[in-house]
Amino acid sequence: MASTHDDHHHGHAHDDPTQGGGHAHHGPNTSARRLGWALAVLLAFTLLEAFGGWWSNSLALLSDAVHMAADSAALGLALFAQRIATRPANARLSYGWQRSPALAAFVNGLALLALTAWVVVEAALRLFQPEAVQAAWMLGIAIAGGLSNVAVFMVLSGGASLNERGARAHVLGDLLGSGAAVLAAVIILATGWTVADPLLSLFVSAMILRTGWAITRDSAHVLLEGTPAGFNEAAVRDELAQVPDIAGVHHVHAWSLSGEQTLVTLHAQLRMGADADATLRAIHHRLREHLGVAHATVQLECGDCADAPRNDPAHGCIPAPGSAHVAAPTPLHGHAH
């Protein structure tokens, strides 16, 4: 007599995200070096601009120094997150620490938004009560700060991770701030119009606000396990429909640990008499080679879906041809390489 037990096979692709896939040997270390050099340069020029802003009484310089101080803290946090992200998985953290860069990017984005709000408030106050500014000092220090930001931005230009994107956003904001301080100093030297200082600070703040919001939004999407950019569930279904022994695919879920690699889980329903092992390998091959999925967990089923309520045809699972109940072979747990 045919068994009414549901058959499940589980497979895991061995581009293991806890080990960094095929790029574990170079990516994290290279990123950490970039962040380390950027941090050293920013720390030095943060002190310079802070002193210069206080000495010249320039809001543009002070705001840029505050941004640079935030960037130094952000880069320090990013560097820490980058290093601990390479730690292996353990019993408490089955995926390891790979999500820490996304968390660092989220904190960086929030800090950028908060500091931008502070600059806007301070600039608005100075519009109503202009203050004298030592424009010559302001100009020299702003130029030095701008050059340092260019150097840091070039150091970080080779990084594509979400964390390095966040760091570059901070540095770009600093570069714009230094440019605004230079322009404000030139205007004040030429015309004596000190209102140029807070006005240009407001202009830069508006540009930084957009970048800060984008980094906060993207990192929050990763932390909430949102669907990675470019992932298309319909494309997964269409691709796996080309595997002869698959009757249907359902319960497709996709997310990312750090915003870089896509992870997928799905249920695939087998046709009567399907070769489970061959089908499992075909699924992993198509996901990895055709759709760029770094890690997949696949559950193969014969008969009704295990997660569907009994006798619920509206659940959305595709019944295998023939009988709704198929004799269950020995469960198979396989790894596709």
From TrEMBL:
Localization, UniProt: Membrane
Protein name: Zinc transporter zitB
Signal peptide from the UniProt entry: none
Domain Cation efflux protein cytoplasmic per the UniProt entry, residue ranges: 232-301
Membrane topology label: Multi-pass membrane protein
GO CC annotations on file: plasma membrane
Key word S-adenosyl-L-methionine present: no
Native source species: mine drainage metagenome
Boundaries of every Cation efflux protein transmembrane domain copy: 38-224
Gene3D superfamilies reported for this sequence: Cation efflux protein transmembrane domain (1.20.1510.10)
Family affiliation: Belongs to the cation diffusion facilitator (CDF) transporter (TC 2.A.4) family. SLC30A subfamily.
Region of interest (Disordered), residue spans: 1-27
One of the record's GO molecular function terms: zinc ion transmembrane transporter activity
Keywords for this protein: Ion transport, Membrane, Transmembrane, Transmembrane helix, Transport
Compositional bias per record (Basic and acidic residues), positions renumbered to this chain: 1-17
InterPro entries, sorted: Cation_efflux, Cation_efflux_CTD, Cation_efflux_CTD_sf, Cation_efflux_TM, Cation_efflux_TMD_sf, CDF/SLC30A
Parts of the chain that traverse the membrane: 35-55, 61-81, 102-125, 137-159, 171-193
PANTHER family cross-referenced by the UniProt entry: CATION EFFLUX PROTEIN/ ZINC TRANSPORTER (PTHR11562), RE54080P-RELATED (PTHR11562:SF17)
